[in-house]
Amino acid sequence: GDSVTQMEGPVTLSEEAFLTINCTYTATGYPSLFWYVQYPGEGLQLLLKATKADDKGSNKGFEATYRKETTSFHLEKGSVQVSDSAVYFCALSAVGAQKLVFGQGTRLTINP
Amino acid sequence: KAGVTQTPRYLIKTRGQQVTLSCSPISGHRSVSWYQQTPGQGLQFLFEYFSETQRNKGNFPGRFSGRQFSNSRSEMNVSTLELGDSALYLCASSLAGTGNYGYTFGSGTRLTVV
To answer: Around Cβ B102, how many Cβ atoms within 10 Å?
Structure first.
């Protein structure tokens, strides 16, 4: 079945460091891909998405490119801030599936 | 426009009781889906409704049920609560429930079963 694998956390970085959170997926066809972020005590917020191969999603300095050849959707940010500390989830929605399949989440902590 | 509203935010129930959670989607959105989030299992899909019809269901026991009303508001019900049902329950609203439209989540209902 469809699945998403994220790099294990927790990830701890210093402010202004470069961030990469790896995400790979297994699905038939061309699923839509998402990154969601969850702050403590809150629900999920959509960070960015891509719906077809080679699309680049971007928001708030975060970027991810839909790579069909490597079935990946890695999240990157050039310079992280303390306020980026949260749990990040990679997810896919397969064609016609009417649901999201999530990775296990990666907890990110940014130290000043 | 208003976001996705879930009520209540917090619930404490006793084993064996039943509980009903509510979700009001974004105006104009016809798809509502529900997810359970636990530290051990992560985020798992419960079910999805579109125009009052359940289109997809996850691998949960029959104690978990849901419905959707004509105004697209949705409820989920858990009967005969077990300790393992303690979780954050998240509702997601979508225009049509397909990936290209995206999903907007509510803040969730934190259910604690004692």
So the answer is: 17
Chain-chain contact of B35 with A42 (C-beta, under 8 angstroms): no
The Cβ of residue B109 has, within 10 Å, a number of other Cβ atoms equal to 22
Distance in angstroms (rounded) separating the CA atoms of residues B80 and B71: 28
Q: How far is B80 from chain A, CA to nearest CA, in Å? A: 26
Beta bridge partners, A12, equal: A109
Please write the tens of the pLDDT for every residue from B24-34. 999 999 999 99
A10 near B CB under 8 A: no
Give the distance from residue A85's alpha carbon to the nearest chain B alpha carbon, in angstroms: 18
Residues of chain B with pLDDT > 90: what percent?
90
Q: Kindly report, residue by residue over B67-84, the tens digit of the pLDDT.
A: 999 999 999 999 999 999
Q: Is A84 helix (H, G, I), strand (E, B) or coil?
A: helix
Q: Do A100 and B31 touch (CB under 8 A)?
A: no
Q: Of B58, B99, B106, which has the smallest distance from its Cβ to A93's Cβ?
A: B99
